């Protein structure tokens, strides 16, 4: 059986991702690797475990020790800490606990759950009746714009997306950079791709923002979460001075990465013209934020892909 990411240092907290149906079935220790082998694969089946044996049993079609059968239920979390499709109610519940206005629903098929998440909770699909133990984890979540109970959905808050860039050998000859965009677990819009053009970390960071803007719904407020202050400043502040100066810096040099900044501003301006906000949030990198970690892993995986 194929086991990936062997070079990664394993700890007691390491998660193992079993891919039963995907491009290359096997056990992975990196979410980015799991994502790369399931995104775009019709009927993909994958799940995270705390032990390698349980993950391997899942891949082999066995029922992992101590695992509860899911009964082919898929929980779509459209608004929560980390939006995505979950096969375990406990995992889904953890993503909506204490979240204001969560949107979540249970489905019989992964396709319906993915469409629900992709639409931001607007596409209700065919819901499966909930059972005992599948109620919201807190009263706040129970009375919010619930989707499990079939109430009319509301658009509460912006769509959150995490972006990141990675460059192996940044600044050196032969550097390889990648782009990562994370909308949520199992979201088809997630991006893990090699960077086009100059292979620098800053270009990768900016490209991640551009890709997020291109793929996000044009009629829904967007919050882009990144650990790159440089990218945020380029996209929200510095560009104003650069435009006045003919895209020249204070020293008269041409602005680096002008092409990307111009495209990002075009996308943001179009959204603003339609009355749709785009906000940026800085987050400290490598600080155990699930979305940031996922975006980073997607970017690193992208940097490993062969450049054309």
UniProtKB/TrEMBL annotation:
Gene Ontology molecular functions: magnesium ion binding; nucleic acid binding; RNA-DNA hybrid ribonuclease activity
Biased composition (Basic and acidic residues): 149-158
Enzyme Commission designation: 3.1.26.4
CDD domains per the UniProt record, alphabetical: RNase_HI_eukaryote_like
Function in brief: Endonuclease that specifically degrades the RNA of RNA-DNA hybrids.
Stated family: Belongs to the RNase H family.
Name this protein carries in UniProt: Ribonuclease H
Lineage: Eukaryota, Fungi, Dikarya, Ascomycota, Pezizomycotina
Gene that this polypeptide is encoded by: rnh1
